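Justification of computing resources. Each target in the renewal requires a structure prediction run like the one illustrated here; the chain below, 566 residues long, is used simply to show the kind of job we budget for.
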Amino acid sequence: MASRGQFGFGSFVPPNDTFSLTKTGLKLKVPREPPGGTYLESKSVLRFGSTMTTSADLSNLKGQLHVRAKGHDKCPSHRKNQVVFLCQDCDTLICTTCSTTTHKTHNDSFVEISETTQQNKSKVRDFVSENEDTRIPKLHVEKKSAEERLSTLKSKYKNIRDKMKLERDQCKDLLDRITEDYLTSCDKMEDAETELHTSHITDLDERIDTFAKLSSECKQTLQTGTDVLVYDSATEVQDMDINIPRIPDTGVIEFTPSKDKLGHLKQAMGVIETSTDHFRAYFKRCNNPTIISKFSYRDKISSVCPITEGRAWLCDFDTKTLNLINNKGKVLQQIQHNSNIRDVSLDPSSGRLWFCCREERTIYEVSTSSTPVRRFTTEYYPHSLCVTREGRVVVGTGGRQGYKVVMHTADGQVLHTVTIDRSGAGWVRSTTQCSVTGNICVVSNKLISGDDHDIDTFSRHVIVYNQTLKPLVHYRGEGIQAQEAVTPEKFDPIKAVYDSKGNIVIPDWKTKTIELITGDGKYIKTLHTNKGRQGVVGIQRDDVLWSRVVLDTGEWGLKLLKYDSD
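Resulting structure tokens:
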């Protein structure tokens, strides 16, 4: 039964078999009509697979285009006539009327169909022979090989998993043994030091008793003693050891936790090597983050600071306001300040909110009563800040003549400083600490030309420092594949945050993507590509991203994305 299909014809979708129809040099592949089928009239647009041929392209084919079905011996243009010739110029079977009309200029290329039969039979015979002797057997062999490989996949991956679990258990055993050795050493040192200090205290008690008793006797001698007794007492005092013994020096015992637990554990565990180029599309499809929530939020957002699952503080620089919202966009609390708030950060130890004000160069902590309390003033204009797990306040500064990263104590004492650029305008757009390694990651924002109010006139890159601000990594987009490879001048990070595994999440303004790299600057994957603009992000402890984006509606809003960084 005739039906409509993808080819754009009127009343019948032919089988897959096609033949070539050529007219004035334009060669088209068109479907053939089955025996007993109907002739198909062309429409203004013909579709063949992914190729579209318009009526303008067929301007030389006047009138209607008729299609002859496979095996049908009637001429599609002159339905009462049988096809008797092959027009070799057009590679088309035609009737005698066609030979004197539309194909009359091709008469030197006409061949009777019967003269081509032997050659065509040979072609068909060769095709059948090649299929039966070679192609089909090879396909069966390939199928059997694929089935055998499929049947071994379960045991193959079970073996790999078993090795991983065995290595994990061995690592656990070693960690337990190391821990036991450390604890035993600690116990022995505690016992020895306890005995030493106990002995010292006993000695002090004895000295106290001796000196107290002797002092009492000396007082009595001074009052009533004879000259001989005074002499003997003076001699006794003179010969005594009157020095106060010092607290014994027991040395120093300290335990320094590893700063790169993840890296060392991976090294101890072993390496998994994969070749996943042919799985790239599959992984990309499977690893798309889950959208937990999305909602419109029209106010400008310069910083997003999630505090618990489902709530986050939003910083709006223009309105001098902090809004606490839930994951539906409802404002739960608002803090109004008297100066523009540039960035916010959560103290991981106390849970209190900190923020910086650029114009007045001040750092504030929000007290339990939700009242901002000024903690200290900075020498340079603060553009970003991060409160570390050690209680340090890391401030990213900006200026017309260079910019820096400065680490302070909670009361403003400067501990470490690193200068990113000594000349020219720029600022540190983002500052964050890794909960795994303790490293500090910043986004450098240098003005290269034009107006500093234009976001596209800056050169940006990501820098990772250790806890004393010694540089470890400079990342400029290496490995990112968007529409094309990302080069340093096309890399445009506007924020950087660490996830729970120590990886770095980077929203990119130009490519409208969210990228994921390792803590040592190795590209992992593109987490998300947004249709509209991509803004700043914040991250919850369970690796849920709060991402400011332009939604499909055209409005600015937020998406909450849950992803897996493995």
